[in-house]
Structure formats: structure tokens, C-alpha cells
């Protein structure tokens, strides 16, 4: 349940490289977190949120909590789709559900991610700046 209007799910393509896999050619579990991070970054970029500007102002998002439900393996050279769907938007945090699918549409991984907005100088929580909050809630 969201505190405001939820943005539609965003999708970002990711290719599995050899470096993402273990000796058996299966994606190493920690790399699903990297795929999710890339998709969240591109989602913010698609909304017009220029993270460089906010970083210069010492404002950033840090992952506070994450859970992964690994349902099926991804393999070397697979083309994946990673989604981002905001679920709960609060004053200082954002919760998203992310899903990773293979080319056949099989759900491989579900991630629940909670990110907090912080002042990067103090690493203390701060309110998500109004312009960011507005764009995330609007979803465009």
C-alpha cells in the first residue's frame, strides 16, 4: 500500500556476462543485487532525476534492507528484464519490488528493497527532497 500514487513498473534490460557467473555458468547470487541496482538507477534517470546534482548537494539513497527470493537460475549470456515498482513512499524512505525475468518470461528472482534518503556528509536520514518525491509519486 502506497502513501501516494504508485508509479508504473519500469523495465531495464540486463545481459549476463561471464564475470557475473560462477564456475558452472550460473549467475552468482550477489550479482542479482547489482542487476537490481542498475535498474533502480536507470528508473530514476528515466524519471528525470539527475543523481549527480543531488550527490553534489550531499543527498543520496542508501539501501537499508533487501531480501531476495531466488526462484530459478540465470545463466551466462542470458538476456534479462529487471523491473522496478515502487510500493511504499515515505518521508525518508522508498520501498520497491523488483523482479528479474529471462527471455522466456520466467520469473527468476524477486527482490524487496528499502532505500533511505540520507545526508551523505552525516549519513543521517533526511526527508526525500520535494522535487524527487513529486516525480516518483507522479511516475513520469
TrEMBL record:
Keywords: Hydrolase. GO terms for molecular function: fatty acyl-CoA hydrolase activity. InterPro entries: 4-hydroxybenzoyl-CoA_TE, HotDog_dom_sf, Tol-Pal_acyl-CoA_thioesterase, YbgC/YbaW. It comes from the Bacteria. The keyword Hydrolase applies. The keyword Cytoplasm does not apply. Pfam families: 4HBT_2. Belongs to the 4-hydroxybenzoyl-CoA thioesterase family. NCBIfam families: thio_ybgC, YbgC/FadM family acyl-CoA thioesterase. This is Tol-pal system-associated acyl-CoA thioesterase. The lineage of its organism: Bacteria, Pseudomonadati, Pseudomonadota, Gammaproteobacteria, Alteromonadales. The gene is ybgC.
